[in-house]
Amino acid sequence: MRRKRALFSFARFLGVLVKEFIQMKRDRVTFGMMIGIPVMQLLLFGYAIDTDPHNLPTLIEVADESPVVRSLTAAMDTSDYFDFIGIVTSEAEGVEALKDGMASVILTVPPAFERDMIRGLVPEILLTVDASDPVAASGAIGAMSGVVETAMAQSLTGALSGSASTDAPFDLIVHRAFNAEQETSTNIVPGLLAIILSMTMILITAVAIVRESEKGTMESLIATPVLASEVMLGKILPYVFVGYVQTFVFLLAARALFDVPFSGSFLAFFAGFNLYIVVNLAIGFLVSTLARTQMQAMQLSFFTILPTVLLSGFMFPFAAMPGWAQALGTAIPATHFLRLVRKVMLKGAGLPEVAGNMGAIAVILLIVVVVALRRYRQTLD
Amino acid sequence: MTRELAISVTGLTKIFGDRKVVDGFDMEVAKGTIYGFLGPNGSGKTTTIRMMCGLLTPDGGEGQCLGLDIIRDSREIKKRVGYMTQKFSLYEDLTIAENLDFVARMFGMKNRKAIVAEAVRDLGLEGRAGQLAGTLSGGWKQRLALAACMIHNPDLLLLDEPTAGVDPKARRDFWDEIRRLAAKGVTVLVSTHYMDEAVQCDHIAYIAYGKKLIDGAANAIPGQIGLSTFVVTGPELTALEDRLEAEGAAGQVIRFGAELHVSGTDRAALVALAERERARGSHEWTEKRAGLEEAFIYLMAGAKDNFGAEVAG
Fold first, then answer.
1. Domain limits for position A34
2. In this predicted model, what pLDDT tens digit does every residue of A32-65 receive, in sequence order?
3. What is the domain-level CATH number for residue B277?
4. Which tens digit of pLDDT belongs to each residue from A191-217?
């Protein structure tokens, strides 16, 4: 079809923008949600997700009541990674306790442990860890080596001081080990910003746009001379503003509640953050062109949020994922923003270090915008 | 007719999937007239209106609207057309004034404040300009929607079932307004289900299953079909209706409250039937001019249903 080219009108764009702000102001629930979500998520994730867990319920199966063993268990207890809850007399009893979740860790010390140690026989103690929660398990295992060192330093004096010179007076055997990237709350919190922005920006934009077609107002709107680009910009910009507010609230809370550092360049953060907001809004716009109802828009938004949480490196270490999952993860803007934020906030990076991450987001943005504008219908066909 | 044409289209066709929703539609509308679209639900009225204002691209056909090509110049046409949708399509969470202001911005109106204030005053809603549109009653919503699509002084007004679900008083007021606008030279294209509205139009097109069955001046249409009608009054009309239909001698038997309207194109046969029935003495048979309603029901019965019951609007 040959159609005459039409020029972008700033006045019409402004009209859409103003209208969108008024509607946002009237919709108190959504507005409250936009501000409430960052804080709520931060509290939930920040406090509830502790990937360096403490106070793991621990049982001991000790066949040797020697001073060395006593000082070992005392060191474990004071490390506060382990919380001794009792003594088992047989292996079967211990396995049962692990199975029903009574205990997460079982320490098994063989008979004549101290005697064998003095004789230089390098006896073995066994640490059985419930690895069904791999992150928790790895925390406990990581803590154990420190505990052993402390215990040895304390007990290997006097009569046993001769053994102190040898490297390992006994072997610590770990049952069911699991290696996960050590995540701490300082690491989780910046990543959470990527997830929250993605969640709210995509969802709210998609719903705001689909609402027009569902309520029938889109029909009137496109019967006016307004252009697709004017509608898109006018509807999206108010939510950029929302993204700013969310991030501000989030950073404030992260600082106050979790003492998360911000060691890098603010400019690098700001640049990456703007780009990230825009890419998410564009995805929201794309979602809105696929959905017919607000309900569908909601479902589709959640559909995009799941991979964002699972494949971006937020939940699981990116390096530990199989190749195909990494490929998928690379296509997700959150993956790159997450790296950017961690680099800037935790590692003190500046603009040059995050240029690669921004480039990746920009490529995704370009693709999304092209697809979204092609899908946006200026007519009802 | 030498009057200036606001719309002139030929062979307008729209296909959704494998269904021709509008099939080879021709129409000429003179400037300043009220042109009514009649037809059952899903007959293609809305689709035709949407094609006129550039919301849908026709799959076939050509024509001009306000002197502009309906396919090439749809954006220019949009600037000069006011379109009122079937469903209330202003923002319920914006106030009356905000809605009008938004539409004025979309059409790039200068001096918006004054225009909006005037529109609010014309509506008689001065004290309520700050009220949310969603809280208005059906009749007021429809008047607001009309004010919104008139805000840029369009030359052509497209109204898609504007009075659906509106009370009779509000409907009458609405039509008074439409006639005032037409008198000022605005061309109005309106679709409706109501016969009492149809007779208010200068010209009517009857559409069924995407095809135009007939068009003409409202009062000329029954004559065009050549329909004769007898009005029957008396006791036990239902039994009579059943009997007449079983005999099949009468063309079309319709119940209108306490009357039966028996219509057909063969006047001689109808007169003979009336004579025979009068002889039984139970009912009164009076000949009258066939009305629009009989005419359209007659047309409907003869129209070929080419895509079943489920049809898009």
1. 10-49+184-375
2. 777 777 777 777 666 655 556 677 788 888 777 7
3. 3.30.70
4. 888 888 888 888 888 888 888 888 888
Does A14 sit within 8 Å of B78, measured CB to CB? no
- Please check whether residues A252 and A282 belong to one and the same domain: yes
Out of A187-191, B184-188, B309-313, the most confident range is B184-188
Q: Given B74, B76, B78, which is nearest A224 (Cβ)?
A: B78
User: Using an 8 Å Cβ cutoff, are A259 and A221 in contact?
Assistant: no
**Is residue B303 one of the residues assigned to a domain?**
no
Contact B56 A381 (CB under 8 A): yes
One domain for residues B154 and B67: yes
| Residue A2 within any structural domain of the chain | no
The tens digit of pLDDT for each residue in A4-18 reads: 567 888 889 999 899
Please report whether residue B299 resides in a domain.
no
At B117, is the pLDDT very low, low, confident or very high (cuts 50, 70, 90)?
Answer: very high
Shared-domain flag, residues A21 and A123 = no
Whole-angstrom distance, CA of residue B61 vs CA of residue B51: 11
Total domains, chain A: 2
Measure the CA–CA gap between A52 and A367, rounded to whole angstroms.
39
Residues from chain B contacting residue A12 (CB–CB below 8 Å)? 105-106, 108
Total tally of structural domains belonging to chain B: 2
Do the chains contact at B93 and A18, CB–CB below 8 Å? no
- Backbone φ and ψ for A236, nearest 5 degrees, come out as -85, -40
Q: Do A219 and B71 touch (CB under 8 A)?
A: no
Q: pTM for the whole thing?
A: 0.71
Is A220's CB within 8 Å of B105's CB? no
> Is there a domain that residue B308 lies in?
no
Range of the domain at B90: 5-221
| Closest Cβ–Cβ partner in B57, B74, B93 for A26 | B93
Q: Which of B221, B255, B274 is the last residue of a domain?
A: B221
Query: Where is A281: in which H helix or E strand?
Result: helix A266-290
Q: Which residue of A lies nearest to B53 if distances are taken between CA atoms?
A: A223
Residue A224 lies in a domain: yes
Please tell me which of the candidates B85, B98, B132 has its beta carbon nearest to residue A220.
B85
Nearest residue to A209 (alpha-carbon basis) of A262, A284, A276: A284
User: A79 φ, ψ to 5°?
Assistant: -70, -15
DSSP E strands: which ranges in B94-168?
A: 156-160
A104 compared with B122, residue with greater pLDDT: B122
pLDDT-based confidence at residue A126 (cuts at 50, 70, 90): confident
For residues B138 and B204, membership in a common domain is answered with yes
- Residues A59 and A128: their CA atoms lie apart, in Å, by 10
- Show residues of chain B in contact with A226, CB under 8 Å: 106
ipTM above 0.90, yes or no: no
Nearest CA in chain A to B77: A225
Beta bridge partners of B189: B35, B158
